[in-house]
Amino acid sequence: MAGGWLLDGQQLLMDAIMTVPYIAAMIVDKQGYVVFVNRTYLKMLKRTEKETLGKHVSEITPNSRTLEVLKTGKAIIGYYWPINGYEGVASSIPLFKKGELVGCLAYSIFLDVWDGKTLMENLVNELNVYKKEITSLYASKYTFDAIIGESQALQKVKKLACQVANHPDTTVLITGESGTGKELLAHSIHSASSRARFPFVKVNCAAIPDNLLEAELFGYGEGAYTGAKKGGKPGKFEVANGGTVFLDEVGDMSLAMQGKLLRVLQEKEMERLGDNKPIRVNVRVIAATNRNLEEMVEQGRFREDLYYRLNVVRIHMPALRHRSGDIPLLVKYLLCKLNKKLKTSVMGVSAPAMERIMKYSWPGNVRELENVLERALILAEMSGSKTITPEYLVLMNDRANASAVSFGKGLKALTEEFERQVIARVLEETDYNKMEAAIRLDIDVSSLYRKIKRYGLGIGKGAGV
Ligand SMILES: Nc1ncnc2c1ncn2[C@@H]1O[C@H](COP(=O)(O)OP(=O)(O)OP(=O)(O)O)[C@@H](O)[C@H]1O
């Protein structure tokens, strides 16, 4: 079909173009007579090859700008090209041989015709597969059934959470001590809401340094900084589109980041870093903190306007010591869960061990209970016991012990004892990450190191102090 003046390489290219289903392509010679036309073009023209080859371009497609190109020798890229009821974007490119203009290539991409449609469908299907994968990657892991406890306090929490689940746009603030199940509750709210088939994306605001947190939340554009990924990177707000963003430890966000978050919550729109294209944000925000936000607002450490934006529905997770009636149920549930995880078969807890568990104050709440039981279970299994007895329970600040220790001690010694226990607990909870522990304790890292040395707490992972 091509004219005889084409080079071998060009011939190969033309053969390829000939078979591409969604590109309409035509070549005319320098006078404007058709010397090449592909199948897609013929379908659009509703002509046969015989009726087209050798005809003048003005007769075949009067809206083409090919003749202009033949006159000027300059390419015209991306012009509007209506033909036979279709609308396309065409380009006309001059062809030269040994510096002399020999013709013009005109082509247009039509995605709404024939195989182009199939291509589009394939792309959409592929996109849906990726969307599904992202959703399952970020699927919420828990429902309300996973929240164990029948105390009145917990029932109240679950009832309120169920109600708010039915309002998928309402921002929720979950407060409570560390380990009380705030994240568990956030997952459950998402799972019970109409956003459940979209992602649940968690961001730990305390664990990420400020300069990285912004990119984590909002993503960055291609040219945001040297070495930025091609095409940029979506932030968690974009990934969660349609679903829920869970901002854990929101009280640990810097004031600067608080301002940026507030803007997104107010305008429901954000921009990637280094990119000024606005992106619509359709997510529910659930924030959680173990800090006293009211106090932080008073001290100027938390923005009042953001506080009100987050505090639309407030759910407080009660501390375990305030609902000790839930402990037996939790122990039963956790033993079952841990036996499965550790492939052990420790069946129960002796009455004296349960008494000790019930008396303990559980400063680390359910997380601490789970950790203590895990250790006890391993110790019991190692000793061949099927029951957890008091000697397998390693408790940090047993109330009974605390009062024994406190008896006859001065305030300074008691304060130090308390400080030691708190630091030990936070270190354990943060997996001995000193940076994170220092942030949680609200002291600087150097003084944390001094205290670790002083109290002999240099145990655990990375504790090279
Ligand atoms: N009511 C509960 N029933 C069963 N498991 C629970 C319950 N509450 C908490 N847990 C378990 O305790 C652990 C800690 O819970 P979670 O991470 O939700 O607490 P959190 O309040 O978000 O803690 P932090 O403030 O430290 O992030 C998890 O393993 C969770 O599954």
UniProtKB/TrEMBL annotation:
GO molecular function: ATP binding; sequence-specific DNA binding
Signal peptide: none
Pfam family, one: Sigma54_activat
Keyword Transcription recorded: yes
Key word Transferase present: no
Keywords: ATP-binding, DNA-binding, Nucleotide-binding, Transcription, Transcription regulation
GO term, biological process aspect, one: regulation of DNA-templated transcription
InterPro entries, per the entry: AAA+_ATPase (IPR003593), AAA_lid_NorR (IPR058031), Homeodomain-like_sf (IPR009057), HTH_Fis (IPR002197), P-loop_NTPase (IPR027417), PAS (IPR000014), PAS-like_dom_sf (IPR035965), Sigma_54_int (IPR002078)
Domain Sigma-54 factor interaction: 147-378
PANTHER family with a match to the protein in the record: TRANSCRIPTIONAL REGULATORY PROTEIN
Protein name per its UniProtKB record: Sigma54 specific transcriptional regulator, Fis family
Native organism: Syntrophothermus lipocalidus (strain DSM 12680 / TGB-C1)
Biological classification of the source: Bacteria, Bacillati, Bacillota, Clostridia, Eubacteriales
